[in-house]
């Protein structure tokens, strides 16, 4: 893995707020591309239990890193 992740992993949750659907985004990990070919590695923050839809998005410039 390279030293910096290229993507962030989120679990999304649909909720109803006053009759309007909203999506909550919970940051749960980081994603790195494989050096030796196709594929990626995802590291989940220790102690986080996840279920549901995982969304992978490019890292934003102002996003603080996750320390594993």
Automatic annotation (TrEMBL):
Protein's name according to its UniProt entry: Uncharacterized protein
Alphabetized UniProt keyword annotations: Plasmid
Protein species of origin: Candidatus Pantoea soli
Taxonomic path: Bacteria, Pseudomonadati, Pseudomonadota, Gammaproteobacteria, Enterobacterales
């Amino acid at each position: 893995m390279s030293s910096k992740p290229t993507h962030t992993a989120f679990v999304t949750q649909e909720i109803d707020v006053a009759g309007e659907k909203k999506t909550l985004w919970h940051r749960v990990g980081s994603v790195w591309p494989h050096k030796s070919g196709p594929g990626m590695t995802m590291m989940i923050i220790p102690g986080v239990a996840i279920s549901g839809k995982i969304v992978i998005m490019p890292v934003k410039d102002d996003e603080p890193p996750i320390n594993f």
